[in-house]
Structure formats: structure tokens, C-alpha cells
Amino acid sequence: MSKSLQAIRGMNDILPEQTPLWRYFEGTVARLLDNYGYKQIRMPIVEFTELFKRSIGEVTDIVEKEMYTFEDRNGDSLTLRPEGTAACVRAVLEHGLTGAGQPQKLWYIGPMFRHERPQKGRYRQFHQIGLEVFNIDGPDIDAELIVLTWRLWGLLGIRDAVKLELNSLGTSESRGRYKVALVEYLSAHLDKLDEDSQRRLKTNPLRVLDTKNADTQAVLVNAPKMADYLDDESRIHFEGLKARLDAAGIPFVINTKLVRGLDYYSKTVFEWVTDKLGAQGTVCAGGRYDGLVEQMGGKPTTGVGFAMGIERLILLLETLEQVPEEISRQVDVYLCAFGEAAELAALALSEKVRDQLPNLRLQVNAGAGSFKSQFKKADKSGALYALILGDDELAQQVIGFKPLRGQGEQQNIAFDALAAHLATCVVQG
Ligand code: ATP
Ligand code: MG
To answer: How far, rounded to the nearest angstrom, does the alpha carbon of residue 81 sit from its chain's CA centroid?
Structure first.
């Protein structure tokens, strides 16, 4: 017997009952980003593998073990994008969007792919909304990115459940000096480090700060702190950011162990974390990456950005019961028609109504059926009102109007007056 067809582990269908919440979330973010002057960019989902190796860094979890990489029919090595920044920078360079130092404030949305162990809040296909800003160097834009996420948490009703963690990784020079000091300290405690950290000490020492291992964490308590190695430029930038967050009234904590998984960050790094989702607590993360564009073959161009994980934020909305009730109702009015003549009239009438009320969510019964069965469907649709058209109504050129949720009496409305009547009782979205 053949195995039944299934989706790939860690790659989820988003079912019709879930999509209203996704669309509410995505719509809220899109409106907010319009308001702050960010422009949407759409990149392909597949890129040359080389792009990710060069930008994300060879010794990162993503490139070492999480990428979906395959050879296409031409023999090229391609990879399903594990994140959006690399492709965004590639597109910006390819189309000269940052030529002559031109600033750009961009955002994107879409699926990302990482071969991780699937669990709550961690999937192999997941979705991000990301922002990337180019050619604006100052802490003002770092602050704007954080301020707008803070506003978003407010709009979504989840502000109380998230906390901002902040750190500065300095310029590459100050980070270089810090790395030397960190490696020296950790090498002196090599026997107490877990295996992964011993390996990272050689390949990517800053990542040791990120460890979840308790013994290694104990060693890190007395390790040198990045904050003591910041040069003036990074320190002034960081102070500027903190002053702006204070001015905007946004609480934050400094987490000196925050380094982020990807190689390309410099100066500001931040994460919004929640304790409501278990181990997968980071809902939004990002930072400054002033060296990345040049590293990818462009002219020196500063950059700063972040990405939020849509699944985790949706989970958080559900956990905190911040799903607005009205989003699940997708039908305002359900039209039932009985018999061929009534069906024809119903079609003409409903199209006329749609002309006049373009935002009305009007569902016309399809597939005929008895009075009882159509009425059941009308009720199940969640509609506020049913319209009823049979031979008797048709003869009088009226349609039955029946409130389904208890407001008001059933009455007959003349065909000509229907749109005007609906306009008074259905709030137009
Ligand atoms: P984590 O430490 O949880 O693995 P990360 O540092 O790998 O996260 P980023 O690459 O910074 O994550 O991606 C930004 C955001 O995208 C994360 O904060 C998270 O909300 C979300 N995200 C990352 N990986 C996944 C995944 N496998 N499944 C669902 N969401 C994810
Ligand atoms: Mg990860």
C-alpha cells in the first residue's frame, strides 16, 4: 500500500480557520510600515548557495547545518533562503538602489527555510517580516526600528509580554580587540567549556557567549565584557541609541551576552523576548551590519535591520488571548435563493448590490438546497443577516431580510432599496 501523502515535517499548512489571524497580523504590520515610510521589496525564495555562505558566514549554525541546499538541473548549487537580509542586500546591489549613498528603508515578508528540529515556535518553513535600512549611520534609525516595533506590540496588545534586550558589538576593530581578550580568557578555562564552545572558541569565539550550557555559562560570569572594549565611535552610537529609547519611554535591559547568531552584525544588536512561549522566546531580532554590503562586493554602505518571526507572534497573540473577535467573522450577509428563477434574480441583485457596496462581504448560496439546509449554511457562515429570495418574494420584487444574531425583526425590502438598507446595518470595513 502506498504511504499517504503528507507535508514535510516542520512545514505547516496554514488552514482557513487560521488565515484571518495571519491576515490581521500582516495587515497591521503593513499599515504601520507604510506610515513610517518603509517600502516593500520582494525577493526570490531561492538564491545561489554562495550568497548565503558569503553573507551569513561559513561558521554559523545556519550555514553549517540548517540550509536546504540542492543542485538544480544546470548543476548550480541553490539554497532555499534561510533569512532575508542576504537576498535583500543582493537585490539592492544588483539594482543600484543604494548608489551614490542613497538611503533606503525597505521591508519584506515571506517564508524562510532552516533544517532545525521542529518544536513549538520552531519550524523548518517559517515566516518572517524583515526591515533593512541602508545608508543611514546614526543611532536615530536604530531607535526608529525599535520604536516602531514597540508601537506594533501596542497595536497588537502584547506590550506587557515582551522585553527589549540590547547590546553593542562595537565596530569590527573594537570587536577584534575584544575577541583577543575573550579567547585568551576562555583558553585559560578550556577544560570547563562544553564541546560545542571549545569548537566555537576556534571558529567563532563570540558565539560562546550565546551558549545554553550551564558550566560554560559559569565560566562566562567573569569573562571580559564587550562594553569595556567599545571604541569611542561605538560607545557614542550606543549612548545615542539608549538616550533615544529613554526619550521614547521604551524600557530595555542591557544583555552583554547578546551576540546574535549571524556573523555580520556590528554596533547595535537587539532582541525582543517573551517568557510566554517557552524556549522559543525571541520574537524579533536584529541589529546593525555596517560591513555587510562591502563584504558582499558593494561600496561601503551602512545597514541596520531586524526580522520578526510571524509564527511566534501569532502564538503569542493566541496565548495572551489578543485575537480580536471581529476578525473571525468573514461574512456580513448570506443570500439564500430557492428555485431557478429566484437564483437568476439573486445573482443579478447581488451583483448590483456589490456595485454599490464594494466592501460588503456578501456570500451567495451555491449548490441550491432546501430552505432548512440553506438556512443552516447561512447561520454557520457567521453572517449577521440572511437574505431570502423565493417565488413569493420574487413576484413582489422584494427580498426577505432576517437578522441572524438577534438584532431586530425579519422584514421584506424592495430590490431597489436593498443596498441602501444594508449600508445602514452593516459596518463597512
Ligand atoms: P533562534 O535563536 O530562536 O534560533 P535566530 O537567532 O536563529 O533565532 P534570526 O535568524 O534572528 O533567529 O531570525 C529572526 C526571528 O525569526 C527569530 O527571532 C524568530 O522569531 C524567527 N525564527 C528564526 N528561526 C525560526 C524557526 N526555525 N521557526 C520559527 N521562527 C523562527
Ligand atoms: Mg536559530
So the answer is: 15
Residue 204 predicted with pLDDT over 90: no
List, for residues 13-38, the tens digit of each pLDDT value.
999 999 999 999 999 999 999 999 99
Residue 116 Cβ inside 6 Å of ligand 1? The answer reads yes
What is the spatial distance between Cα 382 and Cα 330, in angstroms, rounded to a whole number? 7
For ligand 1, atom 12, name the residue with the nearest CA.
285
Q: Phi and psi (nearest 5°) for 84? A: -105, -20
C-alpha cell at position 262:
549571524
Closest Cα to atom 21, ligand 1: which residue?
309
Q: How far apart are CA 407 and CA 415, in angstroms?
A: 21
- Rounded distance between C-alpha atoms, residue 68 and residue 353, angstroms: 49
CA distance 233 to 293: 20
CA of 257 to the centre of ligand 1 (A): 17
Per-domain residue ranges of the chain: 16-169+229-318, 328-426
DSSP state of 2: P
Give the CATH number of domain 328-426; options: 1.10.287.70, 2.120.10.30, 3.40.50.800, 3.40.50.300.
3.40.50.800
The set of cell numbers assigned to 158 is: 502584547
β-strand pairing of 39-40 with 104-113 = parallel
pLDDT at residue 2, as a whole number: 65
Which tens digits make up the pLDDT trace of 309-361? 999 999 999 999 999 988 988 899 999 999 999 999 999 999 999 999 999 99
Q: What is the CATH code for 16-169+229-318?
A: 3.30.930.10
Spacing, Cα 259 to ligand 1 middle (Å):
14
d(CA 296, CA 291): 9
Contact 209, 221 (CB under 8 A): no
Looking at all shown ligands, the one closest to residue 269's CA atom is: 1
Question: In angstroms, how far is the first alpha carbon of the chain from the final one?
Answer: 50
